[in-house]
Design a protein that fits this description.
Oligomer: single chain
Largest sheet: 4 strands, mixed
Radius of gyration: 14 Å
Shape: globular
Number of helices: 2
Structural class: alpha+beta
């Protein structure tokens, strides 16, 4: 595998991600921010953060598969969430949980979550970018 995920001693251990990812592969893959569009460009889960997070993960999985990768190759995820407040975390985690169950995976790469005022389409509540490394 091209990615090794680590929680160094001296840093907090957080269940949903690891603090460090070590990439040893040779092919970098940068996946544009994925929003809650289906294959036809229709927004999935209007007004539902969990449903939109789930669709973003499914879209990332589709993109990874197209280039010969999987979530095992993801080095980092970046989340952009409209009007973020900590009380929205359960919905975000629910979306991740539903997507990972559908995909049969347990992705825990380093992640960054940024609150933003708006995204490109008013119905979009979240956008997720992924960086992967393939062997």
């Amino acid at each position: 595998m091209a990615i090794t995920l680590v929680n160094p001693s001296g840093l907090p251990k957080i269940d949903v991600y690891r603090q460090v990812s070590i990439a040893s592969g040779t092919k970098l893959v940068f996946i544009a921010g994925q929003v809650a569009w289906d294959a036809d460009g229709i927004t999935v889960g209007e007004g539902d953060l969990a449903a939109q997070v789930e669709q973003c993960y499914l879209n990332i999985a589709t993109a990874l598969t197209e280039v010969g990768g999987s979530f095992d190759d993801v080095a980092k995820l970046t989340f952009y969430v409209v009007d973020w407040t900590p009380d929205r975390m359960p919905s975000l985690l629910e979306g991740i949980s539903r997507a990972t169950a559908k995909l049969g995976i347990t992705p825990v790469p380093p992640a960054t979550l940024l609150g933003v005022a708006a995204l490109d389409v008013p119905d979009h509540l979240v956008e997720i970018e992924a960086t992967a490394v393939l062997s």
